[in-house]
Amino acid sequence: MRAVRGLAGCGGMLDWPAFFLPMSVAMLPACQLFGTLGCHLCELAEAQLMPLVAAGLQVEVVDIVERAEWVERYGVRIPVLLRLDSEAELGWPFDTAQAAAFLGLAALTE
Fold first, then answer.
1. What angle do CA 10, 26, 23 make, to 5 degrees?
2. Hey, where are the domains in the chain?
3. Cα-based distances in Å from 13 to 7, 10, 16, 73, 76
4. InterPro entries of this UniProt entry (predicted)?
């Protein structure tokens, strides 16, 4: 059973088994936002994603300092939004509409 996570910073992380979620939420792409503490651009990226999170998008916030390969890969590019299904990356800067289009969720911003 897979668990889904909400965006950190919006009241904490909640784990819910996927079968408890409405079909539209359970079918949204899983994604990760790579950043680090004290990164003001990462905070701006989180703010751009909040309307999508409010609509049901699940985002795992990942601190790049947890793994050396993340620091090497993303260190000078954070924040980076990663789709787990396709491994496609959206680098900063992006706004809510661009993130929604990247995730195939344009209808959520209309």
1. 125
2. 3-109
3. 7, 8, 10, 25, 27
4. Glutaredoxin-like (IPR008554), Glutaredoxin-like_YDR286C (IPR052565), Thioredoxin-like_sf (IPR036249)
CATH topology of domain 3-109: Glutaredoxin (3.40.30)
Strand, coil or helix: what is 34? strand
Locate tokens 């990760």: which residue? 32
Dihedral over Cα of 88, 93, 95, 98: its sign: negative
Distances (CA, A) of 55 to 4, 51, 85, 105: 14, 6, 20, 10
